[in-house]
Amino acid sequence: MFDEPVKLVLGLVTGILFGILLQKGQVAKxxxxxxxxxxxxxxxxxxxxxxxxxxxxxxxxxxxxxxxEFHIQTASLARVIVGGVLFGAGxxxxxxxxxxSVAACGEGRRDAMIGVLGxxxxxxxxxxxxxxxxxxxxxxxxxxxxTLPQLTSTSPWLWVGALVAxxxxxxxxxxxxxxxxxxxxL
Amino acid sequence: xxxxxxxxxxxxxxxxxxxxxxWFSFATVDRQLGITTAFEYSAALTQQAVAPQVVKPYLEAxxxxxxxxxxDWEWMLVLGVFIGAxxxxxxxxxRAPGEKVPPLWGWRFGYSPAKRYAGAFFGGxxxxxxxxxxxxxxxxxxxxxxxxxxxxxxxxAPIMGLTGMIVAFLIYGKEGRSHV
Lengths: 186, 180
Prior knowledge:
The complex is a heterodimer of chains A (186) and B (180). Chain A has 186 residues and is mainly α. Helices cover 70% and strands 0% of the residues of chain A. In chain A, helix 1 (5-24) packs across helix 5 (98-106), helix 3 (43-64) packs antiparallel against helix 9 and helix 5 packs antiparallel against helix 6. Chain A is globular, with a radius of gyration of 19 Å. Chain B is globular, with a radius of gyration of 19 Å.
């Protein structure tokens, strides 16, 4: 029923830091997330791209030192395509993603609380319909838990270097075109 | 001045923070930042208590992978996100008391809270269903999976981003851009 206590405490600490970062990043807000999808406010892309560039260096270093392992999901085409379309559509209607909606609840937003209730029901539908969904998952190819470097038999550091360079260039361009976050009161 | 009393931080600073947090979670518990597995486990535990027959095939399939739904590290992380955002918004006064309908939604659908709540519920439901089918969300696939260079995440992220954009423009149109 429970993880060991030290893991629970570490999870809580990690979550509190994550919640503070999301809230201070102004992404626990419908207006900011929809501003990204409508290509007006680039706060979400700036945060995600920076997190990816910083994260990929450290996580690959930890893995190559043997201090951690990759934790990735299987590349089942049916899963990621069907899931990706449902996720994107639901996100655009709700206006908050799973992590940011929980943070929005912390800000006291009632619509986010109702949305999180809907998320709980959605998770319940998945669990209850698990058997019925199996044929769908098996209807397309599954490439397994594979990374891009493994798939192409290339060095992960080549990819890490290219990804960091890509992020730096992309952010430099975005910063020129969209230097400021919008002054939304909400 | 205490940085926690500021309403917002630079998105780049926040991004660096989340990047470092991903190192921290790999280094301390060898886990990746994610949110939605905790919802799946909570739903499974609830169904186990009220309708065990319904959840049996799911639990058997999970057991084969050596996984048991439980209150785990990620579950506490989700609780922590709520607490962290609550504390952060309290300290900066960035709260939304009584606010029910975001301006963009209100411009398009009117300011009826009931309508917005229905949209949030339905949107949240299919978003989470999609997240569990794909086995990840904006955090698990969008950040953690992309930074690990996972093939699954590099397919999922563009699909969900593009779908979100298309649906957003279908709902709000170009005119909606002047309401965000």
